[in-house]
C-alpha cells in the first residue's frame, strides 16, 4: 500500500484549498442566511476545471482520477458545502453518467459544456413517494414513437433552478417495474417543464433545491440514455459513484469544523490556560482527529477502487455511511468546544453542523447504506 499522494494530486488539493479560502470564504455566511446560490463562484469553479474533473479532456474535462476529486471535494466542503454539492452532482451524477452511458451525440451536445462548467446539470430521481425506494417511480415517460411524453413531479432536486440539463428517471412500462424505467435528458425551457419554489432548508442553504413539475413534456427519443429499460440500472450505477462525492463532502465539513475548533482551543483561555490544555478538550480533539482520518481513508480507498475499475459499491457505501455519521459527531463537538461562540453564525461551526445533517440523508440515507453493506457482506 502506498499512502503518498502524487505531485499532481497535491497540486489539485492545494488549488482547491486556495480557491475555497480566496473565493468561497468571503460572503459564505451571508449566502447561507440569504439562501443565495453561489453563481459567480460556481462559474469560476467551472473555469478552473472543478465541474468536470474526471471527464476525458476530449469532452472538455480535466481527465483527473477520482482520488484527486475526493481531495478537491474535501477542501471545497471545508468552507462551503453549498458550492461543493453543485460540484458533486455535476461531476459524480451528471457528467459521469453521460460519459459512461451516453451516445456520442449526447456527449458532444451536453457533456462538453457540462464538463467545461459552461452550464450545470441536475439529477432527477427523488419523488414525493419515491425517495429511498427508487423503484416506485410515479413520473411517467410514455413512448410515443419518436419521442417520450413526461408527466410527474420530482422532489429535492439539487441545482433545480440553475441547471440547464436534467437527467430525469421515469417509468415507461409499469408492468416491467424497475426494468421499465428510462433515463431521459430534459432541457430547461422545454414546454410543460416548470421549476417549483425553492425549498427553505436547514443546511446547504446556498444550494438551490426545488421540486420540478412535468406536464406533457415532449422529449426526443435520441435523449434517452442507454437501451429501453436501462434507467433504473443507470441511476443505481451513477449513485454508487455519487456516494464517494457525498462522503468526501461530509469529510470536508467535518475537517473544516475540526480545524476551526483546534484553532479556537489554542486561543481561548479558561481557568488560567488555553482550553486545549484541559484534558476534556484535548480528548475531544483527539477523537475528532481519529474519526476524520478514518473517514479520509475510507473515501480514498473507495476512490482508488473506482480508479482501478474494481467494484466500489461496498467501499463507497461504507465511506458515505461512516463519513456522514462522523461529520455530525465532529461538528457537534466543534460547536461544543466553541461554547457560546459556537452558537453564533460568525464563527462558522453552527453552519457546518447544519450542513453536515444532509450528508446522512441525500444520495441514499444512512439506512440505505446499511442495506447495501449488509447485502454485500451477507452475499459474500
Describe it.
The chain has 380 residues and is an alpha+beta fold. It is built from eleven helices and ten strands. The chain has helices at residues 7-24, 28-34, 39-47, 66-79, 81-101, 104-116, 231-267, 279-307, 313-338, 349-358, 366-378, and strands spanning 121-124, 140-143, 147-158, 165-171, 181-187, 193-198, 209-220, 224-225, 269-270, 273-274. The strands form three sheets. The chain has a four-stranded mixed β-sheet with strand order 1-4-5-8. It has a four-stranded antiparallel β-sheet with strand order 2-3-7-6, with helices on one face. A two-stranded antiparallel ribbon has the order 9-10. α4 (66-79) runs antiparallel to α5 (81-101), α5 packs antiparallel against α6 and α5 (81-101) runs antiparallel to α7. The longest helix is centred in the middle third of the chain and has 37 residues, at 231-267. It is globular, with a radius of gyration of 21 Å.
Fold blueprint:
Elements (H helix, E strand, L loop, with lengths): L6 H18 L3 H7 L4 H9 L18 H14 L1 H21 L2 H13 L4 E4 L15 E4 L3 E12 L6 E7 L9 E7 L5 E6 L10 E12 L3 E2 L5 H37 L1 E2 L2 E2 L4 H29 L5 H26 L10 H10 L7 H13 L2
Parallel strand pairs: 1-4
Antiparallel strand pairs: 2-3, 3-7, 4-5, 5-8, 6-7, 9-10
Helix pairs in contact: 1-4, 4-5, 4-7, 4-8, 5-6, 5-7, 7-8, 7-9, 7-10, 8-9, 9-10, 9-11
Amino acid at each position: 500500500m502506498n499512502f503518498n499522494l502524487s505531485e499532481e494530486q497535491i497540486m489539485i488539493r492545494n488549488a482547491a484549498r486556495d480557491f475555497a479560502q480566496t473565493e468561497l470564504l468571503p460572503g459564505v455566511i451571508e449566502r447561507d442566511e440569504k439562501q443565495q446560490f453561489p453563481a459567480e463562484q460556481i462559474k469560476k469553479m467551472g473555469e478552473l476545471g472543478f465541474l468536470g474533473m474526471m471527464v476525458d479532456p476530449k469532452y472538455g474535462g480535466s481527465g483527473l482520477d477520482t482520488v484527486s476529486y475526493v481531495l478537491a471535494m474535501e477542501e471545497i466542503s471545508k468552507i462551503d458545502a453549498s458550492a461543493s454539492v453543485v460540484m458533486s452532482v455535476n461531476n459524480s451524477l451528471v457528467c459521469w453518467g453521460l460519459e459512461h452511458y451516453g451516445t456520442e451525440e449526447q456527449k458532444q451536445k451536453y457533456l462538453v459544456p457540462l464538463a467545461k462548467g459552461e452550464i450545470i446539470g441536475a439529477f432527477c430521481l427523488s419523488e414525493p413517494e419515491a425517495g429511498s425506494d427508487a423503484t416506485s417511480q410515479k413520473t411517467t415517460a410514455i413512448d410515443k414513437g419518436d419521442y417520450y411524453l413526461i408527466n410527474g413531479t420530482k422532489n429535492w432536486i439539487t441545482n433545480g433552478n440553475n441547471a440547464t440539463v436534467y437527467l430525469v428517471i421515469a417509468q415507461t412500462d409499469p408492468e416491467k417495474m424497475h426494468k421499465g424505467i428510462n433515463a431521459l435528458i430534459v432541457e430547461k425551457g422545454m414546454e410543460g417543464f416548470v421549476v417549483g419554489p425553492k425549498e427553505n432548508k436547514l443546511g446547504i442553504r446556498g444550494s438551490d433545491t426545488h421540486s420540478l413539475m412535468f406536464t406533457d413534456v415532449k422529449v426526443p427519443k435520441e435523449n434517452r440514455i442507454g437501451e429501453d429499460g436501462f434507467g433504473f440500472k443507470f441511476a443505481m450505477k451513477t449513485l454508487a459513484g455519487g456516494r464517494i462525492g457525498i462522503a468526501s463532502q461530509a469529510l470536508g465539513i467535518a475537517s473544516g469544523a475540526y480545524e476551526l475548533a483546534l484553532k479556537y482551543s489554542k486561543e481561548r483561555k479558561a481557568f488560567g490556560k488555553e482550553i486545549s490544555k484541559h484534558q476534556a478538550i484535548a480528548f475531544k480533539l483527539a477523537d475528532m482527529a481519529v474519526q476524520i482520518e478514518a473517514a479520509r481513508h475510507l473515501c480514498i480507498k473507495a476512490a482508488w477502487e473506482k480508479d482501478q475499475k474494481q467494484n466500489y459499491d461496498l467501499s463507497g457505501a461504507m465511506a458515505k455511511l461512516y463519513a456522514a455519521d462522523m461529520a455530525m459527531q465532529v461538528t457537534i463537538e466543534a460547536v461544543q468546544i466553541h461554547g457560546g461562540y459556537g452558537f453564533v453564525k460568525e464563527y462558522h461551526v453552527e453552519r457546518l453542523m447544519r450542513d453536515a445533517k444532509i450528508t446522512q440523508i441525500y444520495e441514499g440515507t444512512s439506512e440505505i447504506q446499511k442495506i447495501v453493506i449488509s447485502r454485500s457482506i451477507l452475499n459474500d
